[in-house]
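Z., the sequence and structure:
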Amino acid sequence: MFFKNLWLKLTDSNELRAQKFLKIREKAKREYETKFSKEIEEIHKKINNQKKLNFLHSGHAADIVNLLPVIKELSLEHECNLFIRLNRPLKFYYKHPADGVFINEKIFSMLKPLLENQDYLNQVEIYDNQPIDIRLDMYRDMPINQLFDNITYATITTGVRPNFDLPFLKAEDHSQLNNKIILQRTFRYRNDFINYEFLNNKKDLFFVGTKDEFLDMKKEVKNLNFYDCKDFLDMASIIKSSKLVVANSSIAFPIAEGLNKPRLLEACPYFPAAQPHGQNAYGFYFQPHFESLFNKLMKL
């Protein structure tokens, strides 16, 4: 085989590439059939035959919010319980707030009030060997490319496709901040083709990420204010009361999706997994489009 591949490399590199491509596909097929096909079939049977479903996920926080449309759809005919596995190890992730894991206890404690506020979730708890029917993050282990729409990850696992144009989160209006422009920009998934300097002539700008992220963004946007959210339900209330949300791929954008607020996604050129959905939701890659879409949504 070595000499055959060497000969192909010297005489027909396209044929060698074709063989490698087919081998990768065959390997993925074998892995799916031996490790995952039975579980997918069992998930399908449980959805069709059970009235109670226990879901498992291991984070990130934004990924958990993104799976909620599927759970809401299933809750129409099932009792739905969500269990979160903490401290699953995470490979290098630039300045991730959970310190080397997908979700830690601190971030879970911030997320739980938002989840418990959704009436289609019967129970939300830390995973501690409870019986599980559906691993909603099993796609991470599967031999599939994960650069597809974040909000459809749970659809991949369950086969259930809700109407993503409809709201899937509930929150009360904020008691103090109303009609503000809400910003979040993490250190991850940034678009280096754009900047936020044009916002310096705008008023009522509030940042809802971490303090380090705020201080970094304030280098560009001098009139930016900081709001320290006590948890993600608090963030959801601010977003519900807002004029407009601008964020990159993190927790604020899926919350804005869930509340159907006017929103702009700073799309990431090298990891375009987050996508906007529905009315008054746009993504941008380049500066002219960013500013034009911002002005369009500000007129609503």
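The chain has three domains: 2-33, 37-158, 181-298. Residues 263 and 281 are 5 Å apart (CA to CA).

Let me know what you think.
H.
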